[in-house]
Design a protein that fits this description.
Layout lengths: L2 H25 L8 H35 L1 H24 L10 H6 L5 H34 L1
């Protein structure tokens, strides 16, 4: 059997199950919010949606990973991008600090434990990474404009 035929059969089975669940949900809708049957069908449809989302996400990642592994150029590009990302996050983490904020109302968040030194470091890391990537983007835009003029 060809891969496309198997895929088509799987899609029709998923479509059939989804159609059955939607029709069952719509036939059991009721204005009574305490109805257990309606709650069960809503939960079943939500779990089915979560399952389909998980399967599609895993399939997308697995196929992309297989594609990246099979192509040497794509593997090299992916590793360079991963290294660049790790470098930006590492530099941002080293530059961030855990100084408590001094704005109006910050003491409430500090007292109830919402703001911790660890969360402040990661917030700073995210902000500094955003600044670094924004600066790189601006420099790249300017460089591409200038290099286009000289070509």
């Amino acid at each position: 059997m060809k891969f496309t035929k198997i895929t088509s059969i799987m899609l029709y089975v998923i479509l059939g199950i989804s159609l059955f669940l939607i029709i069952s949900l719509l036939s059991n809708l009721d204005a009574n919010m305490a109805d257990e049957g309606m709650s069960t069908w809503i939960s079943t449809n939500l779990y089915w949606s979560y399952l389909l989302l998980a399967i599609s996400g895993i399939a997308a990642l697995a196929l992309e990973f297989a594609n990246t592994i099979s192509d040497k150029k794509a593997t090299k590009s992916a590793l360079v991008a991963l290294g660049f990302t790790v470098a930006v996050i590492g530099i941002s983490y080293l530059l961030s600090d855990d100084e408590m904020p001094k704005f109006f109302g910050a003491s409430k968040f500090i007292e109830d434990g919402t703001i911790t030194p660890s969360s402040l470091i990661w917030i700073g890391t995210g902000l500094i990474a955003t600044y670094i990537l924004s600066a790189i983007s601006i420099v790249a835009i300017i460089w591409s404009s200038i290099s286009a003029i000289f070509k």
